[in-house]
Amino acid sequence: MESLSSGASRIQEGSLCAQHCLNNLLQGEYFSPVELSSIAHQLDEEERMRMAEGGVTSEDYRTFLQQPSGNMDDSGFFSIQVISNALKVWGLELILFNSPEYQRLRIDPINERSFICNYKEHWFTVRKLGKQWFNLNSLLTGPELISDTYLALFLAQLQQEGYSIFVVKGDLPDCEADQLLQMIKVQQMHRPKLIGEELAQLKEQSVLKADLERVLEAADGAGILDEDEDDLQRALAISRQEIDMEDEEADLRRAIQLSMQGSPRSVSQDSPQTSSTSLSSEELRKRREAYFEKQQQQHEVDQPRQLSYACERPTTSSGGLGNSQAGDASSEEDMLRAAVTMSLETAEDNLKVERKE
């Protein structure tokens, strides 16, 4: 698709959209601004001669001479009369697409070969090359592929936006793009942008690049960047430590809960095994002591907080928690210490039973 961009669709330069429209239609550099201006001047002279037939001293004639040309202007605009006369050289004729005469023919747009569209002094071509339709608008960065099913909808949308659409009748000259696309079909991954959009995007990127360069110069190069990178690495290290501590606390809480539920044998039968259940009683005791030491340090830094959740009192043979009353104001730390003591006793009893077995 990109290889056809320069040949199939000529990008507009200045305001010569009529010239680009004709050359995109014929697929060649057939018309120059000078040639189109010559046609426009010829049309102006023909109109002047018709007006002179009513008398060169008439008010209408003097008013006509004072008015600018209706066939061209200094911006490079050319009228439909200029385009129509230019195409007559190639034996081509323009018919208004939504005229009653053409609509009565009930011709499917897909069966045509090309269209010329105009809105507010802008002209562009829609043409079939090979077996596919293309929007050859000179304001686009390249030809836009239009599917057969979308063509009628595309033209209807242009009409709703106020475009005048003309059907090009006659045999178009042979061109390389048409011959190539007779043999292959192209696929378009990205639709072309308007030239103004692409220029604005490039300008924005240029401004951002200049701003970045100024920031780097003001920051005195890599020194500031290295310092920022060190801060980032330190923040990541602290974050990893906090995550590891949270994971350790979660494992320890699960170990305490599992040991309070009964012997390791019953736990392994009723609950999935975790890394905490495979620890020995000595390792579990050390981890619990480390956990409560860390909890005590945190307790000294922060203000004490009372938990608002209700816990069910387990009943065991040791009776460690059995004498607690419902209104007891024991702190979470005291309850956990009692639970650890009880769970250690339970674990030791289970070990003794296993050794006897």
Automatic annotation (TrEMBL):
Q: Keyword Protease on this protein?
A: yes
| EC annotation from Swiss-Prot or TrEMBL | 3.4.19.12
Q: Name one GO biological process term.
A: protein deubiquitination
Q: Which superkingdom?
A: Eukaryota
**Residues annotated as domain Josephin:** 4-183
Enzyme class, broadest EC rank: hydrolase
Q: Where is the active site?
A: 17, 122, 137
Could you tell me where the Basic and acidic residues compositional bias lies?
A: 282-303
The protein's matches in InterPro entries, at most eight in alphabetical order, are given as:
Ataxin-3 (IPR033865), Josephin (IPR006155), UIM_dom (IPR003903)
Coiled coil region boundaries = none
The reaction(s) this protein catalyses = Thiol-dependent hydrolysis of ester, thioester, amide, peptide and isopeptide bonds formed by the C-terminal Gly of ubiquitin (a 76-residue protein attached to proteins as an intracellular targeting signal)
How is the protein disposed in the membrane? Peripheral membrane protein
Q: What is this protein called?
A: Ataxin-3
